[in-house]
Amino acid sequence: MRQPLIAGNWKMNLDLASGRSLVEGIRAGLAELTLPAGFEVAVCPPAVYLFPIAGAIDGSSLQLGAQDVFHETGGAFTGELAPAMIAETGARFVIIGHSERRHTIGHLEDDQMINRKVRAALAAGLTPILCVGEMLDEREAGRTFDVLTFQLSAGLIGVELDAPERLVVAYEPVWAIGTGRTATPQQAQEAHAHLRSLLQARFPKHADTVRILYGGSMKPDNAAALIGQPDVDGGLVGGASLKAESFLGIIRAALAAVG
Ligand code: 13P
Fold first, then answer.
1. Which of 5, 43, 170, 231 pairs as cysteine with 131 (C-beta 3.0–4.6 A)?
2. Residue 125 φ/ψ region, left for φ over 0, alpha for ψ in the -120 to 50 degree band, beta for the rest
């Protein structure tokens, strides 16, 4: 049985003081909940806050994740961060291939680079949260499954999976990110089931236990219906992860959905 992962992607938001008080609020809320074994909650702050936020979560069940990583182990790559550097902060997860890095930010990451990052992260002991998702025009053209097939397959080229917890996939329909539009639970389930079938072909032993998160305007009031779907195993949460109350609301909704 898969237990949810609720991961907060802070993106380029908050300052250190507000990040710390957000963590304090999440910790206080979590202390009042009983999460089943395997139910995990993570925060993914900007890289410059990884070390101090690692300190802020110390002694709690909260996990730490980074928002990106470079694919080389070291060298003349000004401004980039090697997987071992990310791991040294205490981060366990790293988001790779987020749509804002694929489509919005100047670097325009392609699938080959994303694949190199996934492999490099795994080699350093990090767990990639590999993001995939279609743009609005691709959905409207009926190409959603093709896009997901391509992005997932390309992202996983050459990847060997020794345990299901070493990989997380996030379905993030680009048209639902930061727009207030959410995939319906049925749209999410269809996409997740498709991703699961691809994982089944690729990693027959582990596909049923790899978590597939939904990301795209997940909020306390839509989280239970989304996470209640058979193949939706949690959320990668942007805007609603920036306030303790809304992030905790999603955690509570996930608890209710799996409880
Ligand atoms: P929003 O929850 O703000 O739509 O962002 C989703 C996302 O991109 C998470 O990685």
1. 170
2. left
- Short-list 166, 75, 158, CA closest to 122: 166
pLDDT at 230 over 90: yes
What is residue 174's DSSP assignment? G
Q: Measure 177 CA to ligand 1 centroid, in angstroms.
A: 5
Residues in the chain: 259
pLDDT digit string, tens, across residues 153-195: 999 999 999 999 999 999 999 999 988 889 999 999 999 999 9
Q: Specify whether 172 is catalytic.
A: yes
Query: Apex CA 3: angle with CA 165 and CA 12, to 5°?
Result: 70
Ligand 1 atom with the shortest distance to the CA of 180: 4
Pocket probe for ligand 1: among 5, 6, 9, 44, the residue whose CB has the most ligand atoms within 8 Å is 9
Q: Ligand 1 centre and the CA of 76: distance in Å?
A: 32
Residue nearest to atom 5 of ligand 1 (CA): 238
Task: Please write the tens of the pLDDT for every residue from 46-83.
Answer: 999 999 999 999 999 999 999 999 999 999 999 999 99
Evaluate if pTM is beyond 0.85: yes
Q: Which domains does the chain have, with CATH numbers?
A: 5-258 (3.20.20.70)
Span 242-258, average pLDDT: 97
Residues 6+ apart with CB under 8 A from 183: 173, 176, 191, 214, 216, 226
Q: Is the CB of residue 116 less than 8 Å from the CB of residue 71? A: yes
Q: Per-residue pLDDT for 18 more than 90?
A: yes
